[in-house]
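Researcher: Following up on the earlier apo prediction. This time include the ligand. It's pyridoxal-5'-phosphate, with the SMILES given after the sequence.
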Amino acid sequence: MPRPSQIRIDLDALTHNATLTRQLAGHRKIMAAVKADAYGHGAVACARVLNPHVDAFAVAFVEEAVILRAAGINTPILVLDGPFDSTDVAQINHHNLWTVVHNDAQVNLLRDAQLSTLPPIWLKLDTGMHRLGLAPQAFAQAYDALQAMGASDITLMSHLANAETADDLVSQRQLQRWQTAIKAFDGPTSLGNSAALINNIARDTDWLRPGYMLYGGHPKGVGEHLALLPVMYFKSHVMALRDIKAGETVGYGGRWCAQRNSRIATIPVGYADGYPRHAKDGTPVAIGGKLGRLAGCVSMDMLTVDVTDLGDVHIGDVVTLWGNSPGIDIVAAHADTIGYELSCRMPNRLPRLFEGGH
Ligand SMILES: *Cc1c(COP(=O)(O)O)cnc(C)c1O
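Model: Understood. Below is the ligand-bound prediction.
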């Protein structure tokens, strides 16, 4: 029998979240971010389920797009990083991809390729995140250059650094620059990710680019009022149980010390399975529907949970590391990270089971 640890992907929850996102988007178009293997949920399976609900997909680089094309996904796919070299340009052309252009080198790559028709281009403006994109002046020049090369389909895009908090200074400054830019531009526009969509920032753009909310996540607690459902369930079973006396410690380094006589459950999931080693004592772990607390350092293949207050716990009881309760964002907060990181770095060591989606 295989060990009981697994990732379950609830494709019906994905459909539910996509439907809800569609409602929130109203008349605006939706580009679903499925980069990084759909944030660790499985890009091909997720794209197939999302396909009827969205207008396009976004991936980080060309190889991620080619995987979707090979699986028969013919919907538009935007390459967010744009081409790195001439091979990428050829692939973008061959696979009918859309591409971001975020610097002059990419304008030159497209020019040098001498394509008979340029792909749809999302020209990226740096409004203040200062990671990718052209400054306003360079943006205008690149726009003119692309038009001179025959580009007929150019979308203006930018990205917000802090959409989770709508009215902070970083967002305000970015939004001012954005407003100025779109006045001088008559093509379609796109600014918002999940948090921007939920916080209703940049209402007047043509395209929304949600990712995390489709998987049921709440970026920094944004959207907790919405009925988004978690798509990823990290499951296991209780593997061992023991009673220890007050004063005994648990796990490597003896980090957790029993303040009272305690019952400890051992779960066959460790950091090699994607559970964060940084998780602190007290991180919630659901056992048989009740919440126990992580007790002691997470090992490579195992972790230990204080189940003293949980009543009857048995070997073989079902454990949820994250899913509906506890949510992935709660676990992430206990490990000083975000749910995005936890879901997208799940290793292949765990079997991934897809449920629903028909
Ligand atoms: C990943 C990404 C998104 C999606 O962000 P979420 O926070 O997951 O909604 C949108 N736009 C760009 C440019 C991205 O890289």
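Model: Residues 33, 35, 80, 159, 193-195, 209-212, 219 surround pyridoxal-5'-phosphate (CB under 6 Å).
Researcher: Noted. I'll compare it with the apo version next.
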